[in-house]
Amino acid sequence: MTDLVAVAHGTADPAGIAVVHEIVRQLARQRPDLPVSLGFVDLLTPALPSLVRRVTTDAAGAVVVPLLLSSGYHVYVDVAAEARRYPGRVHAAAALGPDPVLADILADRLGDLSRVDQVVLAAAGSSDPRALADCETTAALLAQRVDRPVHIGYVSGAGDRLPAVLARTPGRLAIATYLLAPGFFNTLVHRHAGPHPVTPPLAPDPRLATLALRRYDEAVAAVGPVRRGDCVRV
């Protein structure tokens, strides 16, 4: 069987670490027959390269599933590097977003919008325009879901910053936090929010694990099953 290697961005926030581990536990509960491990692209261990190296010593193959909401540097550089390092054995799945499932979770977090005119999607941000495009798609999906205009404000990287978006957006606002877990960026969102209500990050929610498993299945289907006899150790 092809292992699932989940990879997340590290955080110094214990609550954020706990949430990421809960996603992995949900993966294991939903697919108990599937070998699942967790690595990180920043701050925490095991670092993704060392984890993949360890997994590939025993497993016929692995799919690296980014527990990331958009495709940016970590997907196109860090995750892609592991697939190149083990050609034919390690494959990269797509990021979690954009996807209607994420819009559904965001809408559920927002709850009753009878007193809300517009929504601001608070996202981490990126210097990669492909990641910003992913966020724009998510904003469009959420706008359809809640029947309200949705604007994007970033707390880092390129794109319009959250304080400026909040300042220029009229009416009664709600902030939809487009972050996976508590951490530094979530603290920034609350710091900039002022009087506006703010939703919690997306995790933990079992739909995230279901989505990650779908990304895994999509990657496996794209490449076909990996058999140990087809592989050469590196």
Automatic annotation (TrEMBL):
Spell out the coiled coil positions from the record.
none
Known CDD domains for this protein? CbiX_SirB_N (cd03416)
User: Which terms are listed as keywords in the entry?
Assistant: Lyase, Metal-binding
Statement: the UniProt record of this protein carries the keyword Lyase? yes
What PANTHER family does the database record attribute to this sequence? Answer: FERROCHELATASE CHE1, SIROHYDROCHLORIN FERROCHELATASE, CHLOROPLASTIC
Q: What is this protein called?
A: CbiX/SirB N-terminal domain-containing protein
